[in-house]
Design a protein that fits this description.
The complex is a heterodimer. Chain A is an all-alpha fold. Chain A contains ten helices and no strands. Chain B is an alpha+beta fold. In chain B, strands 2-1-3 form a three-stranded antiparallel β-sheet, covered by helices on one side. Chain B is flat. The chains are: A mainly alpha, B alpha+beta.
Chain lengths: ~280, ~100
């Protein structure tokens, strides 16, 4: 991505008076949200020059760049709150390029490979952007200034991503018999990864108690409400599967993740410190 | 979208007009392919307003535009060439009127 990134939100300096436990949790939370955005940016970027039409290449690239623009301040903030072993803040590049798979804390939903299936791409984007939109809308009022600033800027982007995915799901679901069947298969494939978005844990609970994070469980009804309504309009069935995959927040990833990181990281690792 | 176009895998062509800011007219900026009007509007947003070029977008099916023919250029446009009195050059333009 050679395009200049949008003006980054400057991370607020770590307040020395802040409880170190809260600081650590806030760093963990920022890292999770940053990893979600970074990994999906990478997946969306794979579509450039492979989308059904040139116009869609540009649309998906715009979405990827929006996500990358969200990941940068989130990772920088996480790096300032979760210093390395030497006590120095870690940079966004260090976090993006030099961590191993087990240290990535994104949900598994964002790492799934589309394998050239455009239906999978828009099915995942529908769920993820609906979640991000609700999350950022709430997080914009958080008591953490940096998280609130990132969320306030990103909420409009997420709303547009959600609209883009909605348009495609409606057209493909309610299109030809072939497109309907493939869109349904794509939704079915993505569905076992949806519930992970709404799982609370000790980190989100401790932060939500002080207004610094959004309780993931509170997002479940509005997100599934939106997605289900779109699926219904698209004449698609909401999958009834009970299968749930989870573990991304704790570094447990699918087979696809290693391949994704190899592409994302190999230049930075093969040429340490290179700039271009 | 016509069935023929759908099976050929080609989307119809749309012409895009963008108003760069309030007070100005929509101006033609280019064209694009899209399956329908709603998607054409979104594609136009992504292709032509990425760098804050606009506050309003129109999309028009290219097939709906009737254009003058280059063959008729002489009869259409040349007669206006020697009618200097049609230009408002004999009036003083008030200060601050940018887009007269």
């Amino acid at each position: 991505m050679t395009e200049p990134a949008p003006t980054p939100v400057t991370p607020t300096a770590v307040t020395p008076t802040r409880d170190p436990r809260i600081s650590y949790d806030a760093g963990t939370y920022a890292l999770r949200l940053g990893d979600d955005a970074l990994v999906l940016a990478q997946r969306m970027g794979e579509w450039v020059a492979s989308a059904p039409q040139l116009e869609e290449d540009v649309a998906l690239a715009n979405i990827a760049l929006d996500l990358l623009g969200q990941a940068r301040p989130l990772l920088s903030y996480a790096g300032s709150l979760l210093p390395g072993a030497d006590g120095a803040a870690r940079s966004e590049d260090e976090l993006a390029y030099l961590r191993d798979e087990r240290d990535f804390t994104n949900v598994q939903l964002v790492e799934l490979a589309d394998n050239g299936d455009f239906g999978r791409c828009v099915a995942r984007l529908l769920v993820f952007s609906a979640w991000q939109q609700e999350l950022y809308a709430s997080l914009a009022g958080a008591s953490d200034d940096t998280l609130a600033a990132v969320a306030a800027k990103a909420v409009k982007e997420a709303a547009y991503h959600r609209d883009h995915a909605t348009q495609w799901v409606l057209r493909l679901g309610d299109g030809t018999a072939e497109s309907h069947q493939r869109m349904q298969a794509a939704v079915d494939a993505v569905w076992p990864y949806v519930e992970e978005l709404f799982e609370p844990d000790a980190v989100t609970s401790s932060l939500a108690a002080v207004g610094m994070a959004v309780d993931p469980a509170s997002l479940r009804d509005p997100v599934l409400g939106y997605v289900s309504a779109v699926l219904e309009r698209a004449t698609l069935a909401v999958p009834s599967t009970r299968v749930r995959h989870s573990g991304g927040r704790h570094g447990i990833h699918t087979e696809a993740m290693g391949h994704l990181l190899a592409e994302l990281q190999h230049v930075a690792r093969s040429h340490p410190g290179a700039s271009w | 979208m016509s069935a023929a176009a759908a099976t050929a895998g080609e989307w119809p062509l749309w012409e895009v007009f963008v108003r760069s800011r309030r007070g100005l007219s929509h101006a033609h900026v280019g064209s694009l392919h899209a399956p329908d009007a709603e998607m054409a509007l979104r594609n136009a947003r992504d292709l032509y307003t990425r760098r804050q070029e606009g506050v309003s977008i129109w999309v028009v099916p290219a097939a709906a535009i009737t254009a003058s023919s280059p063959d008729e250029k002489d009869a259409f446009f040349d007669p206006a060439a020697d009618k200097v009195y049609r230009h408002p050059t004999f009036y003083a333009v008030p200060d601050g009127v940018e887009h007269l």
